[in-house]
Write a structure and sequence with these properties.
Pfam families: Usp. This is Universal stress protein. The chain has 51 residues and is of the alpha+beta class. The protein has one domain. Helices cover 47% and strands 20% of the residues. Strands 1-2 form a two-stranded parallel ribbon. The radius of gyration is 14 Å and the shape is elongated.
């Protein structure tokens, strides 16, 4: 199995940093593009309403 693009999300937590590192290693191994996504709520009230 080969990959041309690997996508990983991060929120800055320790576990997501590990996920980014693993995804980066996979991207190197498969000579794939790496896409790192991060989303946040600029307004704390909006974050609470979304849950």
């Amino acid at each position: 199995m080969t990959y041309s693009t690997i996508v990983v999300g991060t929120d800055g937590s320790d576990s997501s940093v590990l996920a980014v590192k693993r995804a980066a290693a996979m991207a190197v191994a498969f000579d794939a593009h790496l896409v790192i996504g991060c989303a946040y709520y600029a307004d704390e009230d909006a974050a609470v309403q979304a849950v």
